[in-house]
């Protein structure tokens, strides 16, 4: 309890500093995983595909929670708004854990489509990734403020302004992530990227769906 009180006190006194530290940890985990800095246990091809589906479910639930949170705050249901947004944040943390395991221990997929659809997919994927990176500090800052201040105190902070930016960037990123997932896994075919393509050469179409 004392530790929790101390953390809340620090977040209350220096929300930007806490935001910077938490955001930095997130960036280090992601870039370290892509760079092969952090060791991950190898996972089976079936697990990679299962994680892809699970991530899509988690992101859909997170987007639903965000939309609900916006509705609750607009109807002045502060407690429900807080619960919805914290649920969304918790789901994103779960997404991050699953995504890092999939990338670090498995492989990434490349879509098998050409022409305008391919370029539209790349544009949506690029915007999704960019917004995911940009939204980290604003989402974390909104959460830090929300957890360290009372509803009355929040009115004197940048929580509402930061929250609107977070919802816009975070929500659009999630939506585009879901769209690209459907295109990659349920509309068009895919193949593993890089070295994983060699490892999966013997598996064939049965893993593609």
TrEMBL record:
<feature type="transmembrane region" description="Helical">
    <location>
        <begin position="49"/>
        <end position="71"/>
    </location>
</feature>
<feature type="transmembrane region" description="Helical">
    <location>
        <begin position="21"/>
        <end position="43"/>
    </location>
</feature>
<dbReference type="InterPro" id="IPR007352">
    <property type="entry name" value="DUF420"/>
</dbReference>
<keyword id="KW-0472">Membrane</keyword>
<keyword id="KW-1133">Transmembrane helix</keyword>
<feature type="transmembrane region" description="Helical">
    <location>
        <begin position="83"/>
        <end position="101"/>
    </location>
</feature>
<protein>
    <submittedName>
        <fullName>DUF420 domain-containing protein</fullName>
    </submittedName>
</protein>
<feature type="transmembrane region" description="Helical">
    <location>
        <begin position="165"/>
        <end position="184"/>
    </location>
</feature>
<dbReference type="Pfam" id="PF04238">
    <property type="entry name" value="DUF420"/>
</dbReference>
<feature type="transmembrane region" description="Helical">
    <location>
        <begin position="121"/>
        <end position="144"/>
    </location>
</feature>
<keyword id="KW-0812">Transmembrane</keyword>
């Amino acid at each position: 309890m004392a530790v929790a009180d101390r953390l809340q006190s620090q977040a209350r006194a220096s929300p930007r500093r806490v935001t910077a530290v938490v955001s930095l940890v997130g960036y280090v985990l992601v870039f370290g995983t892509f760079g092969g800095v952090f060791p991950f246990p190898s996972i089976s091809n079936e697990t990679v595909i299962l994680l892809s589906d699970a991530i899509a479910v988690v992101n859909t639930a997170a987007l639903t929670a965000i939309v609900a949170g916006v509705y609750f705050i607009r109807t002045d249901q502060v407690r429900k708004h807080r619960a919805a947004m914290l649920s969304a944040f918790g789901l994103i943390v779960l997404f991050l854990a699953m995504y890092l395991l999939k990338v670090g221990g498995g492989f990434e997929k490349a879509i098998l489509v050409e022409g305008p659809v391919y370029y539209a997919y790349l544009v949506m994927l690029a915007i999704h990734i960019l917004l995911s990176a940009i939204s980290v500090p604003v989402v974390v800052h909104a959460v830090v403020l929300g957890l360290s201040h009372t509803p009355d105190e929040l009115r004197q902070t940048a929580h509402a302004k930061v929250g609107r930016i977070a919802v816009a960037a975070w929500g659009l990123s999630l939506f585009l992530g879901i769209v690209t997932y459907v295109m990659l896994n349920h509309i068009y075919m895919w193949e593993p990227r890089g070295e994983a393509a060699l490892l999966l050469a013997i598996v064939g179409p049965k893993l593609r769906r």
